[in-house]
Design goal:
With about 240 residues, the protein is α+β, with helices and mostly antiparallel strands. It has 8 helices and 10 strands. The longest helix has 20 residues. It comes from Pelobates cultripes.
Amino acid sequence: MEEHSKMSEPEEQHNDLHKLEEQKVLYSETNAYEMQELLGSGTFGQVVKCVKKGTSEKVAIKMLKSRKYVAEVAQAEINILTQLNKQRPDEFNVIKAFEFFLYNNIICLVFEMLDMSLFDYMVSIGGSFPVRMIRPIVAQVGIALAKLKSLGIIHSDLKPDNIMLVDNITHPLKVKVIDFGCARHVSEARCSSYIQARCYRSPEIILGYPFCEAIDMWSLGCIMAELFTGCTLYPGASEYDQVSA
């Protein structure tokens, strides 16, 4: 017990999620999801590929440990996703969420299954894109950002990892914006220690100035340049490096 009490929260979360993985099935009030494959993991949780039992439908489930801070962040994301779902997200290139539930103290967010991230696609083709490929990608993300602006939502973490190809075989270069874990309404926008990934971070955030949805357009501009050159526009190990670039 003494050793357990010294365990850090991320370690506890990892163990809890590992125990849950051993059960292989997640249950909501109306559905059961059989876990198949780990798609990714982070500090507060992981994303798992699942199949809805009784059907062949594949979904991606984001699983988060129900700690106080994580639960607050998850609830904010759920609120925004619920708002977006009411707007028919397919029409403005945003990932679709199906349901949210708590299972064995794990917060589960169920999403449509997409293909690969724009970052992984860049790696797969060896870096830079021709302009004919960049245009449709940027146009689709621009539509997503325009819709978010109309709803007063700032994504706050736009980067190649958070833009996903839907299905590059049947729908080449069709993309959707994902991961609203850092998203906030403009009225709630506050600078914090982590808003936007460093290489896509706008001057307002670096300098601690008031900000709005325009910070997402800055990120999109950085992504567009990266797609064309195959290199990060503003590389650096610190915000000082970003300003000096």
